[in-house]
From TrEMBL:
PANTHER family: INTEGRAL MEMBRANE PROTEIN, POLYPRENYL-PHOSPHATE TRANSPORTER. Keywords: Membrane, Transmembrane, Transmembrane helix. The chain crosses the membrane at residues 12-36, 57-80, 86-103, 115-133, 153-181, 193-217, 223-241, 248-269. The keyword ATP-binding does not apply. The lineage of its organism: Bacteria, Bacillati, Bacillota, Bacilli, Bacillales. It comes from Salicibibacter cibarius. Coiled coil: none annotated. This is DUF368 domain-containing protein.
Amino acid sequence: MGKIDVHNLWRGLIMGTVETIPGVSSGTIAVVIGIYERLIAAINGLSTREWKQSLAFLIPLVTGIFIAVFSSAKVLSWLLDYYPNQLSFFFLGLIIGIVPFLLKKVDYKRTFSGIHYFVLLLSLLLIALFGIMQDPVQSSILGSMSASDYLAIFFLGWVASSAMILPGLSGSFILLVFGYYETIIDALDHFHFPVLLTLIAGIGIGVLITSKIVHFFLNRFPVGTYAVVTGMVLGSVFVIYRGMPADIGGLIASLVVLVIGFCVAFLLGKVEHKQ
C-alpha cells in the first residue's frame, strides 16, 4: 500500500460535515480544497492495479467523513426538533446560492443551447412535481421501518453516492427529496445499525459502480450533465420549503439564515470557480 496521506483526515472531516447538509456537496468541497480530480481517480483506481495507492488516499479521507457525519448528526437532529423552519430556510439559501456556481461551471451563456434549457426545465419540473406529490420533509419513521423502507434506503444510498461525486449536488439532498433525510439523521443520532448498514451498503456499491458512469458523463457531456443537475437543484426549492413561520420573530430569523445560507453556498461556489 502507498503512503497514507494524513492530511486527508481533516479534508474528510470538512467533506463529511457538509455532506449532512442538503444543498452543499462534498464534491464541491473536494474541488475547493484541491483534491477533486485525485478523488475521482482514486475511486476509479480501486478496480485497477493501482488499488493500493487508491486505498492509501481514500482510507483517511473516508475515516474523516465518517467521524464528521456521526458528530454533526446530533446537532442537526436537535435543530430539526426545535428550529425546523429556520433550518429549512438555511437549506433553501444554500441551494439557491449554489446555482450561480453550477451555471458558471459550464459557462452557460456560451455553451447552453435549446436542448440544455429543455433538460434543465424538465429536471426542475420532475423534482418539483415529486415534491408537490410527496411529503419529503416527513418526520423520522425510524420506529416503524418496513422491508420496503429498507429497500428504498439501500437504493437511495446508491443514488446518493452519485450525488456526492457531482459538485453542487449532495447525497443528503437525495435523501431529503425522497423523504428519508430525517430518518437517516435520527438513525445516526441513535446509532441504529440496521438502517446505517443498509445505507452504507448502497453507498459502497454505488460509489464503485456509478462513479464510473458519472465520470464518463462529466467528461463526455459536461454541459448536459450540469443542465440536469441545475434543474434538480432549482426544483428542490419546492421540495424543501415548509411554509412561512407564523410569528414575526421566527420569520425574521428564517430570513436571516436564508441570507446566511445563500452567502455560504455562493462563496464556496465562487472559490471553486476560481480554481
